[in-house]
Amino acid sequence: MGVREDVASALARDPAARTRAEVALTYPGLHAVWAHRLSSRLWRSGLRLPARMLSQLARFLTGIEIHPGARIGRRLFIDHGMGVVIGETAEIGDDVLMYHGVTLGGTSLRHEKRHPTVGDRVVIGAGAALLGPITIGDDCHVGAGAVVLSDAPPASLLVGVPAVPRPRRAEADRISGG
């Protein structure tokens, strides 16, 4: 998991991205992920207070809150990013695209798995809330503003409040760029 791979992923997914330097220097989603990698290492080595302090500094600087306990796969791209919250027991697969205002939140006050697990190649639209210890399968698309409260099988489209999983259609994917 490297900086070059992250920058290349952003360039591939954001048509507004112009150069590697611009992406590396100005994309807060990347900065938040990079800070998370360090805070996560601290967290897993038992340095919990420094890990939380770093994650809060990153939150202040980027507007993106990622708990150091969250597990994040390769090439997560958070586009725009402001207001994103990723909880402690969240798990995110590889090649996930997430827009601003997304919440991967918990619904329990117990010390247990209480945040979502998101599969590989998932797209999560702006303002979507995925709540509780649910599992979102690979290749799902979550619509903007959706509230997801239950598991979704792979290749689902999740829209509405509460969101209902539907099979993704090729026509919808072509229109949405999926």
Write up this protein:
The chain has 178 residues and is of the alpha/beta class. Helix content is 32%, strand content 21%. The chain has 5 helices and 15 strands. It has helices at 3-13, 20-26, 28-44, 48-62, 170-176; strands spanning 65-66, 71-72, 77-78, 85-86, 91-92, 97-98, 103-105, 117-118, 123-124, 129-131, 135-136, 141-142, 147-148, 156-160, 163-167. It has a 6-stranded mixed sheet. A 5-stranded parallel sheet has the order 1-4-7-10-13. Strand 14 and strand 15 form a beta hairpin. Helix 3 (28-44) runs antiparallel to helix 4 (48-62). The protein is globular and about 40 Å long.
Radius of gyration of CA atoms, rounded to a whole number: 16 Å
Counted by DSSP, the helix tally is 5
Relative strand content: 15-25%
Adjacency order of strands in the biggest sheet: 3-6-9-12-14-15
What do the pLDDT scores average to? Answer: 93
Largest sheet entry: 6 strands, mixed
Q: Classify the helix fraction into a percent range.
A: 25-40%
User: In angstroms, what separates the terminal alpha carbons?
Assistant: 24 Å
Shape: globular
